[in-house]
Design brief:
The complex is a heterodimer of chains A (108) and B (453).
Chain A: E1 3-5, H1 6-9, E2 12-17, E3 22-28, H2 32-41, H3 46-53, E4 60-66, E5 71-77, E6 103-105
Chain B: E1 4-8, H1 20-28, E2 33-39, H2 46-50, H3 57-74, E3 78-85, H4 89-105, E4 111-116, H5 122-130, E5 136-137, H6 146-150, E6 154-157, H7 162-169, E7 174-176, H8 184-192, H9 197-207, E8 223-227, E9 232-236, H10 245-251, E10 261-264, E11 267-270, E12 275-280, E13 283-287, E14 290-293, E15 297-316, H11 319-323, H12 325-340, E16 346-352, E17 372-380, H13 383-398, E18 420-435, E19 445-450
Parallel strand pairs in B: 1-2, 2-3, 3-7, 4-7
Antiparallel strand pairs in B: 1-8, 4-19, 5-18, 6-15, 8-9, 9-13, 10-11, 11-14, 12-13, 15-17, 15-18, 16-17
Classes of the chains: A alpha+beta (108), B alpha+beta (453).
């Protein structure tokens, strides 16, 4: 089956702190049809995200399909609070990269 | 008053300077208030713990000067929340003194300068806990214990609109706030002018990050928000930007775990029924926000010191050593244990080129690059110990003994054969909430006069 990478479909893929104990991820599409296509393909769900990041479901605090912004959003608990010694990403701003390569089926 | 206009030139005043062109356009639109938030917990626990700003004084002064001069020439109030990144008392005092200096330097006619503090003393919190008050944890944290309170260096409480409204009632022309909810900085004037809470807090929500609610992406540009009894309208002031349905709805998600709800001390802004409508090329109108009041609970942020800190850095190019990097680190850790024992310090290794940025979350951690850089962080009770610990943790990687390595003259490369002192290490000890009977009890307000009498 032909696929396309999420990075070719989404307008914005980003991560950022949501408070000091969580990191939140936003995947935003520029049009409704791309958003619906990714939703239908079920490639971006609680389960796929948990598996991609190697975390149990309990580490995901929120997973929302946010229609007003054509966006999928999820939030995870950090391994440790932001900015403790050893935390390599104080702002949580570089944790989204693995999402870019998610393969989305073309006909979904 | 049918509507109220507020401009916001910067989502984190001082962190990077205001772009003045769009600010001037915003000022020309004759807003009723000029407001900005100056704080964030994004910068980590070090600034709060060690009571410093992360923003340079020159940038803080630049932004305050732009806003003050515009506010005085228009004759409208200026409001700043979370002064100096952390909103601690010393940061409020700093901003108050900058405003006074600017007013004197520009010979501004006398005006009323209001300010409030947000620091919470450990003794105050301890006595509330001894009286049975539970300091509830947020985001899965357990309630605050006496031991965690002991480990805390400094605590700030997050103000809602109340101290701002109090100072506006008393006629403040300029307000410097301690730690505050971002949205409260803008909601406060709207509530003071008796607009409904749901519109006021939505206005605050959409304005708090300035141009982050506009597209194309561009920070530190001014946006204008207009609130009425029924709606909020937000307009980009930069000619290069627009506030669109997508950009405004998209911003509702930014930096929060759920796009539908925003919590402040007095309640929750519910955005789940919001409707977004493009009313002109650069303006989006939002209706349908709701506000659910609840028992007043104030968020507390606290930072505790974990120790003095030194950092070291090494590079590795040998492919066999890269594959066995954990053994190299294990060797260095063992040398540190031999010298300092098992506990009483922290030694952190971050392996760039393998999983330096993402740690355990990195899906590619079993596929390291052809060369890696290892950042070593040593944290210990004294600077002397942290330095020696870091030196052991760094230099002993050079001597690591791997059974089949070809190179036997050094397992790592040094760009600097030294370790460097870093800022002390802190951690977030409080991300909690406290019940309060009076919304002002943690936020003492003060009024002074600035300018030429």
């Amino acid at each position: 089956m032909k696929t396309q990478k999420l990075s070719e479909i989404a307008k914005t893929v980003r991560s950022k702190n949501a408070g000091v104990d969580k990191i939140t991820f936003d995947i935003i599409f520029s049009d409704r049809s791309s958003y619906e296509r990714v939703k239908r393909a079920r490639v971006l769900t609680r389960e796929t995200v948990a598996s991609l990041y190697g975390i149990p479901d309990s580490r995901i605090s929120d997973f929302v399909e946010f229609d007003p912004a054509n966006a999928i959003k999820f939030t995870i608990y950090r391994p440790q609070p932001s900015g403790s010694a050893g935390d390599p990403d104080i702002f949580g701003s570089q944790q989204y990269a693995p999402l870019l390569d998610i393969e989305v089926p073309e006909g979904a | 008053m049918r509507s109220l206009k507020i401009i916001c030139p910067n989502g984190h005043l001082g962190f990077a300077p205001i772009r003045t062109e769009s600010f001037r356009i915003g000022v020309a639109a004759r807003p009723d208030y000029i407001a900005a938030d100056s704080g964030s917990d994004d910068v980590g626990p070090v600034p709060l713990g060690s009571d410093v700003s992360t923003s340079p004084l020159a940038w803080q002064t630049h932004d305050l000067e732009q806003m003050l001069l515009a506010s005085r020439s228009l004759g409208v109030p200026m409001i700043i929340g979370s002064a100096g990144d952390t909103g601690s008392n010393s940061r409020v005092d700093l901003f108050v003194s900058i405003i006074k200096d600017l007013a004197a330097r520009h010979g501004l006619p006398a005006f009323k300068l209001g300010y409030f503090y947000s620091d919470v003393s450990k003794d105050d919190l301890r006595s509330r806990m001894l009286n049975g008050e539970i300091v509830e944890g947020l985001d899965g944290r357990p309630p605050l214990t006496g031991a965690e309170l002991d480990a805390t260096e400094r605590i700030v409480a997050m103000a809602d609109v109340h101290p701002f409204v109090d100072l506006l009632r008393r006629g403040a022309d300029v307000i410097i706030g301690g730690r505050s909810s971002d949205s409260a900085v803008f909601a406060a004037p709207a509530i003071y002018h008796e607009f409904p809470a749901e519109q006021a807090y939505y206005l605050g929500k959409v304005l708090e990050c300035a141009s982050f609610c506009a597209e194309p992406y561009g920070g530190k540009e001014t946006v204008l928000g207009e609130v009425s009894a029924d709606d909020v309208r937000v307009t980009a002031m930069s000619p290069a930007q627009r506030c669109t349905v997508a950009s405004v709805a998209g911003h509702a998600m930014y930096e929060r775990s759920n796009p539908y709800y925003e919590h402040v001390a007095s309640g929750t802004l519910d955005m789940s029924q919001c409707q977004y409508e493009q009313v002109d090329a650069r303006t989006t109108r939002i209706t349908g926000a709701r506000f659910q009041p609840w028992d007043f609970r104030v968020k507390l942020e606290g930072a505790g010191k974990t120790g003095e800190r030194y950092v070291g850095m090494v590079g590795i190019r040998d492919p066999y050593t890269i594959v066995h990097i954990d053994d190299v680190i294990g060797w260095a850790r063992a040398q540190a244990r031999e010298r300092f024992g098992d506990t009483g310090y922290e030694l952190h290794y971050t392996v760039y080129g393998r999983n330096g940025v993402m740690g355990e979350l990195e899906p590619l951690k079993r596929h390291p690059a052809h060369e890696v850089c290892v950042l070593v962080q040593a944290v210990a009770p004294s600077a002397e110990m942290a330095e020696e610990l870091c030196m052991i943790g760094t230099r002993q990687m050079f001597y690591a003994r791997l059974p089949e390595v070809k190179g036997s003259a050094g397992s790592v490369a040094f760009a600097l054969d030294e370790v460097l002192r870093a800022s002390p290490a802190y951690r977030w000890t409080l991300n909690h909430t406290l019940r309060c009977d009076d919304p002002l009890e943690l936020f003492p307000t003060h009024m002074t006069v600035a300018g030429v009498k």
